[in-house]
């Protein structure tokens, strides 16, 4: 896995020979095999006393006077392997300053690959602080958060291919989708909780690819907002993907609490314009892989592929409480429903109209409770 990650970082950096990075990732822990073969009992005892790679390196140094990275580099040098690969293995436990010859990139990609590999091998991210890894990646390699996101998406795409190639069992597509969502939303995109959310000041424009090919039909007009017909077509596609892949799909229905007042004072045309402007504003705050529709009779609908219920609530609350691009008195009632999480055993959800009906029920409850709030519908 470290080799795959190192190669993904190299591709994002657009280096000339990304396969060299893959080779370095494969070889970085070869010293462990040497130590295990040299004294199996002693090394097994060292492994038993350590629960992390960092502690393993420390224990190796304390007991043996050197660590497995140094052993691996020495072995590779004796085999006549190139010095840059030996250097990458030797330095795999420590970040290196950048050098004009670009070798620092190789060293740091191998160094960074370990934590990212641990993240992707777990089912929930493990103990990896993905935000800290992203920041370190930017500091060492100059990759922006956008670059980091693209690298993570590439890794998620490659994992099934490499699992087949090497005949190993890795995480399922559903878990990969959840990990990508966590990396993108929880660590890089969204705040930790609704209570600490800051009002939106910049559009949330980082793309987040879903774990399937999106071939849903698009409207021929302006691409930003969908009409009801195209909403149903896209939602049908996303529902099928979520059902087969086992990842969440959140559907939200938003209504403007002040529409009735605007209609009475200014007429239906002003009412429709207000809703359209609000929908366009929301569209600009979401990711390109999300979908927004606006229909005069049905209000505004959001389709958030791969987004769990908790994160969907965070998104809608941020939209509700932080709308600097809309008139000051704009208030939303929002209903949220998440397929899979909020529908145990299917709960009668058999198609897209069932999804929309659940979101509509949640929206109705939000309005009955006084409006200007988010309500999440759960099947029981």
UniProtKB/TrEMBL annotation:
Ranges for region Disordered: 200-223
Occurrences of domain GGDEF (ranges): 247-379
Coiled coil start-end: none
PROSITE patterns assigned: GGDEF (PS50887), HDOD (PS51833)
InterPro entries membership: GGDEF_dom (IPR000160), HDOD (IPR013976), Nucleotide_cyclase (IPR029787), Rev_trsase/Diguanyl_cyclase (IPR043128), RNase_Y/CdgJ (IPR052340)
SUPFAM superfamilies named among the record's database cross-references: HD-domain/PDEase-like (SSF109604), Nucleotide cyclase (SSF55073)
Highest taxon of the lineage: Bacteria
Domain HDOD, residue spans: 1-95
Signal peptide coordinates: none
Protein name, UniProt field: HDOD domain-containing protein
Organism: Acidihalobacter aeolianus
């Amino acid at each position: 896995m470290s080799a795959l990650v190192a190669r993904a970082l190299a591709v994002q950096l657009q280096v000339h020979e990304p396969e060299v990075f893959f080779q370095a990732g494969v070889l970085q822990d070869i010293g462990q095999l040497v130590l295990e073969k040299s004294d199996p009992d002693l090394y097994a005892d060292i492994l038993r006393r350590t629960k992390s790679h960092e502690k393993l390196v420390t224990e190796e140094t304390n007991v043996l006077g050197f660590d497995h990275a140094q052993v691996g580099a020495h072995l590779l040098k004796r085999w006549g392997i190139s010095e840059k690969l030996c250097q990458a293995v030797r330095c795999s436990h420590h970040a290196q300053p950048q050098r004009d010859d670009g070798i620092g990139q190789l060293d740091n990609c191998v160094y960074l690959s370990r934590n990212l590999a641990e993240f992707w091998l777990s089912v929930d991210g493990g103990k990896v602080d993905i935000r800290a890894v992203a920041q370190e990646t930017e500091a060492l390699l100059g990759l922006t958060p956008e670059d980091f996101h693209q690298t993570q998406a590439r890794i998620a795409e490659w994992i099934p291919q490499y699992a087949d190639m090497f005949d190993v069992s890795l995480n399922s597509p559903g878990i990969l989708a959840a990990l990508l969502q966590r990396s993108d939303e929880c660590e890089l995109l969204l705040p930790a909780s609704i209570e600490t959310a800051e009002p939106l000041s910049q559009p949330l424009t980082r793309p987040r690819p879903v774990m399937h090919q999106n071939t849903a039909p698009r409207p021929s007009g302006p691409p930003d907002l969908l009409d009801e017909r195209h909403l149903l077509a896209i939602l049908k596609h996303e529902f099928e993907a979520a059902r087969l892949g086992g990842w969440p799909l959140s559907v939200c229905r938003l209504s403007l609490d002040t529409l009735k007042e605007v209609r009475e004072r200014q007429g239906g045309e002003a009412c429709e314009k207000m809703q359209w402007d609000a929908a366009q504003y929301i569209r600009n705050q979401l990711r390109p892989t999300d979908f927004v529709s606006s229909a005069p009779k049905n209000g505004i609908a959001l389709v958030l592929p791969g987004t769990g219920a908790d994160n969907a609530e965070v998104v809608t609350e941020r939209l509700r409480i932080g709308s600097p691009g809309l008139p000051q008195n704009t208030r939303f009632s929002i209903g949220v429903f998440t397929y899979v999480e909020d529908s145990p055993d299917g709960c009668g959800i058999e198609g897209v109209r069932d999804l929309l009906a659940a979101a509509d029920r949640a929206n109705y409850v939000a309005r009955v409770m006084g409006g200007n709030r988010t309500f999440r519908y759960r099947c029981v």
